[in-house]
Write a structure and sequence with these properties.
It contains eleven helices and 23 strands. It is of the alpha/beta class. It is globular. The relative contact order is 0.13.
Length: 410
C-alpha cells in the first residue's frame, strides 16, 4: 500500500460537488461542497492514473467564499458572462477548477476539509483567496464489465429496503447472501460526526438500521451518479467501504472523488446491466442517454423485481426526462405499473409531473428520500401532493435524524 499523503499545505485545487449544502461540523453553515486534491496531484494529473490520488471533501462556507472570490481571470471571462455565481459554480465546464489558498487552523473557523474515504477528522481552514483557473480535465470512467454473483442460491428470498438517510438516497436489494446498495448517500439532518460516533449531539444513541442488514452480505454498490449525497456513507464508514467488492458508476462520466486510492480500484463503469438473484428475482440497471447532458441526467436508473413485484429507483433523474431518454429501455419504464418508487431527485418540483403509475392504487409506495437542508426545500409540497393524487401511499420522514429502514418489496 502506498504511503498516505500528508494534508495539503496551503492550497487545494477543487471542483464543485454541491453548490448548496449544509456543513456536517460546526459552525453548521450553508456551504459549497467541493472535492479537492493537492497541487502535486493536480500538476501531475494523478487523478487520471491507475493509482489515483488522495481526494478531500471541502465544506467551504459562503461567508468565507464570497468575500475572497477573485473574479474574473481572463481564462474565465468568456464563460462567465451573463451568469450569476451559482450558475458559474454549477455549470463550470470540465477544465475549470477552483484554486483555494488557505492556512490550517487549530481553532474552529468557517470552513474545513477532511480526507475522503478515510477515518479522518476535519482540519479547519482560514481561507485567503478563491479563484477560477483552467486545468486538466478528469477523464470519464471507462465502460467495464459487471462482476456476476456466485451461482449458489441465496439463503432467503430477495427483498428491497429503502432507508431514511436525510438529504440523500440509499436502498438495499439483498437475498441474505448477496447485496447491492442502490446509492449510499446521507445528509442533513443525518450528519457525519453523529453517524461516526453513534451518539446524537443532544445525547441518546443514533439508530442505524442499515448496518445490521449488510453485516454478512457479499456487498456491491451501484451509485446512480457521482454527487456526494448518493455515496457519502461510503466515505463516512470505512467498514462499509471495506466490504464492497465493486462500486458501479455510470460509464462515460468523470468522478473526481472516486480517484481516491481507497476506492478507485473497486470502481467499474457500466451501461445497461442485469444482476440476478435466486427464484427469478433480478435487478435491472439502465444507463441513461439524456437529450440534455448534465450531472443529474448522466446516470444509472434501477428497477428491482422481487417476488413478482416491481420498484423503480431513478436517482435524481425525474420522470419527464425518463420519458424522452434516448435509451428505449428507460422510456419503456414509464408505461410500467410499480409497487414502489423511490421518488426522483428527493421530491423536487420537477418530480411532480409525468409520474409513473402505481400497480395497486393507495397501496403502492412512493418513498421520499429527503432531508431538512435549506435552499432546495425537498420534498416539495407539489411533489408530495402529486404522488398522492396519483394514488400512491406517500412515505415521507424527511425530518428523521436516524437511518430508518422501510421494506419496499416484496
Amino acid at each position: 500500500m502506498s504511503e498516505r499523503e500528508p494534508f495539503p499545505d496551503g492550497s487545494f485545487k477543487a471542483q464543485v460537488d454541491k453548490v448548496i449544502a449544509v456543513q456536517d461540523y460546526s459552525p453548521l453553515r450553508r456551504c459549497v461542497r467541493l472535492i479537492g486534491i493537492s497541487d502535486k496531484s493536480f500538476s501531475n494529473k494523478l487523478f487520471n492514473t491507475d493509482g489515483g490520488c488522495q481526494t478531500y471533501v471541502i465544506d467551504l462556507s459562503w461567508t468565507d467564499l464570497l468575500p475572497r472570490l477573485l473574479l474574473y481571470p481572463r481564462t474565465w471571462m468568456s464563460f462567465s458572462l451573463r451568469k450569476n455565481l451559482l450558475e458559474m459554480l454549477e455549470d463550470a465546464p470540465p477544465g475549470i477548477w477552483l484554486d483555494i489558498r488557505f492556512t490550517k487552523e487549530i481553532e474552529e473557523t468557517g470552513s474545513y476539509a477532511y480526507e475522503a474515504f478515510a477515518d479522518s477528522e476535519p482540519t479547519y481552514l482560514s481561507i485567503k483567496s478563491v479563484r477560477f483557473i483552467v486545468g486538466p480535465t478528469v477523464e470519464p470512467i471507462a465502460l467495464g464489465t459487471a462482476k456476476p454473483a456466485p451461482a449458489s442460491i441465496g439463503v432467503a428470498a430477495a427483498r428491497l429496503t429503502a432507508f431514511h438517510v436525510g438529504q440523500g438516497m440509499c436502498s438495499l436489494m439483498e437475498d441474505g447472501r448477496d447485496g447491492y446498495l442502490l446509492d449510499a448517500g446521507a445528509g442533513t439532518p443525518v450528519r457525519r460526526p453523529i453517524y461516526r460516533a453513534g451518539v446524537k449531539s443532544g445525547g441518546g444513541s443514533f439508530r442505524n438500521d442499515l448496518l445490521p442488514l449488510i453485516g454478512s452480505l457479499s456487498l456491491n454498490a451501484i451509485v446512480s451518479h457521482p454527487d456526494s449525497d448518493h455515496w457519502r456513507l461510503l466515505d463516512w464508514d470505512i467498514t462499509i467501504l471495506s466490504k464492497l467488492t465493486s462500486v458501479y458508476l455510470p460509464a462515460g462520466q468523470p468522478a473526481l472523488a472516486f480517484s481516491s486510492p481507497a476506492i478507485k480500484k473497486k470502481v467499474i463503469g457500466i451501461g445497461d446491466t442485469s444482476f440476478s438473484f435466486s427464484g427469478g428475482d433480478s435487478l435491472e440497471v439502465r444507463r441513461s442517454q439524456p437529450n440534455v447532458s448534465d450531472k443529474n441526467g448522466e446516470c444509472l436508473v434501477c428497477v428491482a423485481y422481487c417476488g413478482g413485484k416491481m420498484a423503480l429507483m431513478p436517482g435524481d433523474y425525474v420522470y419527464d426526462r425518463m420519458a424522452v431518454d434516448f435509451n428505449t429501455n428507460i422510456q419503456a419504464m414509464m408505461i410500467g405499473f410499480f409497487d414502489a418508487v423511490v421518488v426522483p431527485h428527493h421530491g423536487d418540483h420537477a418530480s411532480a409531473s409525468a409520474i409513473v403509475a402505481p400497480k395497486n392504487p393507495n397501496l403502492s409506495v412512493a418513498f421520499f428520500s429527503a432531508g431538512t437542508r435549506s435552499g432546495y426545500g425537498h420534498p416539495t409540497a407539489a411533489s408530495l401532493n402529486a404522488h398522492r393524487a396519483r394514488n400512491f401511499d406517500v412515505v415521507d420522514n424527511h425530518r428523521c435524524d436516524d437511518i430508518i429502514a422501510r421494506q419496499l418489496l416484496p
